Amino acid sequence: MAVRRDNNPEFIEALARGLDVLRCFEAGRPAMTLSEIAAATDLARPTVRRILITLEQLGYVRAVDSTFMLTPRVLELGMAYIGATNLWDLCRPHLKWLVDQTNESCSLAQLDGSDIVYVARVAVPKLVTLGVTIGTRFPALQTSLGKVLLAALSPAELDEVLAEPSRSGITPRWTPDREEIDATLRDVRAKGWAATDEQLAPGIRSIAAPVRDGDGCVVAAVNVNAHAAETSMDTLLDAHLPLLLRAASAISADWSAWHARPMETALARD
């Protein structure tokens, strides 16, 4: 049975357990019984029952026969982050332009532990090996987006991140040792962009570039993603990389300008 996960007296275990219940719903199990949720979260049935009653009253789950399902209101939790950072409004025109130029799907991601999480995306109908939507997470090291974000970390931050297990549920094809990781990230820092060729899963190759704030810090990464059966690495590097770098620069400029707004203007518009 689940035990308290943090000895900090300020830590609210009940809230953590409620979030565990929300997170246990996945694509393969949109509706779950009380017993299934208890097993998935390693929580006692009475605890899960009280959490579900609370979430149902708040509008985040609904009971359907003998099962429970998430409601669309759960989207508010994720969209609050997108809205607070203005990510979608900032990135949409630049991602759309990049998609129009490359005819490939393009995304923006940020680092969360040892994973990347997709926070903006414009997709085109293509062959796909792994489905990607807003909120999808993959192991960072095996993606071009992740390599860009990892390369921006300090040595101490990198050690801490690499020590964390991935929460993506994906078993990547490429499992480098630390020497190879360090060499790869040095190369990314030297070039200013990253590439990956079927290191995460068969058929997936991509290139990525950093998005920077007004202080020059990497705050996100943007990529062009392609299927190996349709797009060669030469096409990605020779044709698409210059376009990607242009889009990354434009997003960085808009990001910096938005966050540099005078507080009075920000409050008036928000």
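(ticket continues) Second input and output from the same batch:
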Amino acid sequence: MKYRSTRGGIESVSFKEAVMMGLASDGGLLVPETIPNVQPKLDQWAGLDYPALAAQVMLPFVGDINESVFTELVHRSYQSFDHPQVAPLVPVGDIKVLELFHGPTLAFKDIALQFLGEVFSHILAERNETLNILGATSGDTGSAAIAGVRGKPGIRIFVMFPEGRTSPIQERQMTTVLDDNVFNLSIDGSFDDCQNLLKSVFNDLPFKQELALGAVNSVNWARVLAQVVYYFWTWYQLGQPKRFDVSVPTGNFGNIFAGFVAKRMGLPLNRLVLATNENDILARFFDSGVYQRGAVHFTQSPAMDIQVASNFERYLFYQFSEDAKATAEFMQGFQANAEAKLKNPTGYFDWFVADAVSDDEALGSIADMYQHYQYLSDPHTAVGCFLANKYRDPDVPMVALATAHPAKFESAVEQALPETANTHPILSALTGLPTRKIPMLRDPEAVKGFIRQHCSS
């Protein structure tokens, strides 16, 4: 399999090259040259456990790693998960919830970032090279990325997060990691500011090449690829129905774009319910065809407090019939005017149902699920569950993706359910540990200077 950029400036890149490149050097995102149809293989894959299924789903996209070596990398990626199924499917009233938070940092990001850490290590050992990772996080990506690469030889990781805008526990998960190869940079601003810094640094191509800069954010294709797997896993756990719907808490569009890819691969996935909070830029787009940036609203579901979804460009590429020029023009227009409009909102556009959920509705969803079904949810999952129930078709199985353990969001859960026990031993163990973070100016030159300094020391 080869990869190309959504903006047309990069072509015929191998899987390993795509992983190491992260963000395409023309400013676009890397996508596979073709999306394979695996429908004829679906019956063969029935009964596989999660790691074995993951290897089979991902192998058609690889090509330049030996199959047995790749399979071993995938199996190692899920050894640290605390549930034998990796991602169990749990009934909650009239819907089912796919729990994606059984990894080492209790968030769905572990599904992809444990895998990405293994792939990075394999490639670096093979090439005898080093890698400096720059990431931006609204909370869970940072700790999951750190857990994936901490202590690994040949890798340094620099994680930018918005100061005071992650949950206290999310910050502790990052800043209590004191390994020499881990640097947490607190930015005075929003997650969008962190993401803009990330893109500015990566767009300095001489700096990116000189410092061997790599990405762990969902701009990295390997992140999306690993997430495609659990849509197939869901279908098998449901008993292989003729069709099914999935409600996806959505911020950066990587999670739901993975479902889009799974559907393109031949999985009988019916509707993708795009569930967002008061930062409703994506919900408005799928309602009107207008992509219009607004002010960031800070909510009880901070991972979705995003106005510019970094993976959205991949979807647009397919919406524009893989026309790189049209994709680039749309994104350039949006960057210049904070608004761009889709002229013909049909085709893949119709695969999505999109809606926004208020904080009050999300907290009410947390309380309702616990009081009626004894199921405790984090606020992001509650957003997905609220819309899963709203848009459920009684004739079609509806699944909501659970993106984090509720104990990661103590404050929100406490508001919804005062005095309800909400702990996890992994998080409780962080109390009182020493922390380390570096305040950083909202300036790409300051970030580049810090990286350069700590890569030469």
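Agent notes: The CA atoms of residues 58 and 418 lie 43 Å apart. The mean pLDDT is 95. Closing as not reproducible unless the customer responds.
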